[in-house]
Design goal:
Length: 498
């Protein structure tokens, strides 16, 4: 048998031999000179491996969950809110531009009407109509005065006055060519307007308002002023690097509204989205429309940049946390796991439970008051003292005294509810907290427990207790109420002795 085992020893696994021959392992090792294939893994090492595996799994899962949380709970709601706010800001800016341009256009109309209403040169037309002066005299009288009035109008390009389809006089601001202006301004209308008419003229480098203002004398139209009013500089002030402003026709206005996504709408302007561009449209005057627009990319550029920074910093912070956790914390956690596991219950036992009586300890009373006590609940407090306990110790010995304390604790703990608490307060004193216990049944409850305490066996005599009661209401001081119960217990003890 031994020979057979020796011959096949190179094929026999160390652990299989152990399983076959549980005794005499040291002798077998000497005979066969067998070395184990692998060093056995200790329980501590197995625990460490398992711990690291779990930590890795938890870390990966946490990383995925945190990313999901950041994206769907933090990033997307935050980005949506910021986008809505940005669209609102865009709409508000558009309204501001609307009013700026509307005011500019109205200033041009008011300037044209004011020029047409100048009394002296208007009366000269009346003299011409009445035959007092001829057309040449009208021109001579009007020329300088008309130029003086036109010169005061800011952003004016040109102004022409016509009577009977003939040009009386004109004024052109510096920097503009008279022939080019006359080509732009067609003031020979087939149908003359009875009120001021405004239209928009777009040239290569200039956007102008063409204003036709009728001249009235005694409710009769005697001539027209034809005004070109520049809007380019005022539009330029409203434009920015990303937000653009323009004036469009009614046809273009409805083309933009067609197949667009409505964002918001009020009495002045409508905000829409079309082809990844946000537009705010509004009607300024008759057939004149304003459009303010910005691409989605530029509108949300700052938001995307900020949210991306938040995500990047969040991921970097989490990676750093994992790095610190792995290399600076977990190695020390594992070394203390074993000791912590063994001592955990001991510490809890020492801190929360009295070793002799199994009642809650006095140190746990602070925990109860700060963490467990219900702030809106009223408690009945019963402070208990063992009568003649010193005599029991002196006459029957400390073992008997310890037995008495343990039995009293057992009896109380067996006769209270799960939401009541029984503490060893010190020496032979105990304190009981009853939650929402009917006051009329409290004495009856205590007396029933006292009867059971009298059945505790003593070599001679019976065990008795004295007690005092108080009530602990919401926000009342625990120490004061315990002292009150202590005074009542002391009074009961004195009466008994008396």
């Amino acid at each position: 048998m031994l020979q057979t085992i020796r011959e096949s020893s190179d094929k026999v696994n160390y652990y299989s031999i152990i399983s076959l021959v549980p005794e005499g392992l040291d002798d077998l090792k000497k005979v066969f000179k067998i070395i184990p294939d692998k060093k056995p893994i200790s329980e501590k090492e197995l625990s460490t491996v398992s711990l690291f595996k779990r930590v890795k799994i938890v870390t990966v899962v946490a990383f995925i969950l945190i990313n999901i949380f950041i994206i769907f709970v933090v990033y997307r709601p935050m980005a949506d809110t910021l986008k809505k706010n940005q669209i609102q800001v865009f709409s508000l800016v558009s309204h501001l531009d609307f009013h700026i341009l509307e005011s500019a256009l109205m200033r041009g109309v008011e300037a044209a009407n004011a020029l047409s209403s100048r009394t002296m040169i208007k009366n000269a037309i009346g003299d011409y109509k009445d035959g007092i002066i001829d057309f040449s005299g009208l021109q001579t009288y009007t020329e300088q005065k008309y130029a003086d009035g036109a010169r005061t109008v800011e952003y004016l390009v040109s102004a022409y006055r016509c009577v009977d389809d003939k040009e009386v006089t004109g004024y052109i601001s510096e920097g503009y060519d008279s022939e080019a202006v006359k080509d732009i301004l067609n003031y020979h209308f087939e149908e003359k307007a009875s009120e001021t008419v405004v239209s928009i003229r777009k040239e290569e480098v200039e956007i102008m308002a063409s204003i036709v203002s009728p001249i009235y004398i005694d409710d009769a139209i005697v001539g027209y002023d034809f005004i070109l009013y520049s809007l380019s500089d005022q539009l330029e002030k409203a434009n920015s690097e990303s937000v653009c402003l323009d004036l469009i026709s009614e046809e273009t206005y409805y083309e933009l509204l067609e197949q667009s996504q409505l964002i918001s709408e009020d009495t002045e302007m409508t905000t829409i989205k079309k082809d990844d561009i946000y537009y705010t449209l509004g009607n300024i005057n008759d057939m004149i429309y304003i459009v303010v627009y910005e691409t989605q990319e530029t509108l949300f550029k700052n938001i995307m940049g900020q949210t991306n920074v938040i995500i990047v910093f969040g991921i970097v912070y989490f990676i750093l946390f994992v790095f610190v956790f792995y290399f600076f914390i977990i190695r020390y956690i594992n070394s203390g796991l074993g000791r912590l596991k063994n001592s955990r219950d001991v510490f809890k036992h020492i801190a929360y439970e009295d070793a002799l009586t199994k009642a809650y300890s006095r140190s746990f009373l602070t925990v109860w008051n700060e963490k467990i006590r219900k702030p809106d609940q009223t408690y009945s407090i019963i402070l208990i003292d063992v009568n003649r306990f010193k005599a029991i110790n002196d006459v029957f010995g400390h073992l008997t005294g310890d037995h008495v304390l343990s039995e009293i604790s057992r009896i109380f703990r067996e006769n209270i509810r799960s939401n009541d608490y029984f503490f060893r307060f010190g020496g032979d004193e105990f304190v009981l907290f009853l939650e929402a216990f009917p006051a009329e049944k409290l004495s009856e409850k205590i007396e029933s427990v006292i009867k059971k305490i009298k059945n505790i066996e003593l070599p001679k005599g019976t065990v008795s207790i004295s007690y005092g009661m108080s009530h602990l209401g919401p926000k009342e001081n625990l120490e004061e109420k315990i002292n009150l119960a202590d005074r009542k217990m002391y009074e009961q003890k004195m009466k008994r002795k008396g």
